[in-house]
Amino acid sequence: MTKVVTVKRRALAASEARADTLRSGFAASGTLVANLISSPGSGKTTLLEATVRGLDGELTMAVIEGDVATENDADRIRALGVPAHQILTGGACHLDARQVEAGIKDGGLPEVDILFIENVGNLICPTTYDLGEDFKVVLLSVTEGDDKPVKYPAIFARAEVAVITKSDLLPHVPFDLDSVKSQIASLNPNGAVLVTSSLNGEGLDGWLDLLRARLAAKRRTPG
Amino acid sequence: MTKVVTVKRRALAASEARADTLRSGFAASGTLVANLISSPGSGKTTLLEATVRGLDGELTMAVIEGDVATENDADRIRALGVPAHQILTGGACHLDARQVEAGIKDGGLPEVDILFIENVGNLICPTTYDLGEDFKVVLLSVTEGDDKPVKYPAIFARAEVAVITKSDLLPHVPFDLDSVKSQIASLNPNGAVLVTSSLNGEGLDGWLDLLRARLAAKRRTPG
Q1: pLDDT at residue B170 above 80?
Q2: ipTM surpassing 0.95, yes or no?
């Protein structure tokens, strides 16, 4: 067991060094980088589609998609005219900095205002992997149940932004929004919580404003 | 990297030996064991609650719950009068055979007709871990989207039973049931697909009949 832990620690240290290199590059280009994490089917790609539509013509964007299999998600983004690169992990349950570094090169992604990294659909594994991002975003759909933040505390504690998705389904599911907000607040007192629906547009303005504000703040801060 | 692979392979071999021991014990006691796997919030615990209610007085049952954090799920099962043991994995994204073995002892679980193992909410990591079960059940809620089987092919290929959950929400979400059935059929030609709602009861009779039939078949088959 000790051997496993040592090997894992070494791999993690190498990955962290790579993440630092990525972060320096993003600072130099003034690119805001968001790392999106959630269960499968919480609506990461759909939120990105709505984001791309909302910021089209105002900011330049690119997307790195992480999936176990299929190019489907990258295809959905490309269909909107935004460059996207699909990373296929085979069986792995998260992206790492090495894959993101290679993905930017292999995908020939241009320098942009905002780079979105859509992690593999998983509420656990991606939590501890630094991809050089400015902040992590955790998504939770109202259909997943209102007990999830305390059941998956690590990601809700680390993500600076929590986006509750599919709010249009609130009338049809048992979901105590106040309880979820209070669970997240207890895990992450400084985190932002947004309630959104990519279907009817609720809350999307707040999400776009958050991105604009974080990009402006990054560019005000000397590298 | 080779070192990591070697260490992992050794750990997996040890885990497989433990799973075989567990399987022999379950064969001796005539216990049917189902390993439930899905994303967080697909409705595993809710299906188990409905199952316990449906088979109450007819068959004896016990549940092992796997979660990163909280005793919530075991508490929900115990509230229905069925013995349950909660395994907390800390950060780990799946259960292993050692934890199940220890859980049965530590939880003082009695010999029963059916033991349900509710794995950690994760559509990737639990796929390759044998827990000594008779079969894996993968759950997919209609709110997660109809692209999931091909995006997470390994678990849909391995699970002998796929349960589509939350069918009561079909009128409110874009979900092509025929496409999902055909994706699953292509990954797993011999698998069973059930469409259910734990809320309005749709399809639950079929699920209970499947459990009855598998238990009867197991007891007909010599050790």
Answers
A1: yes
A2: no
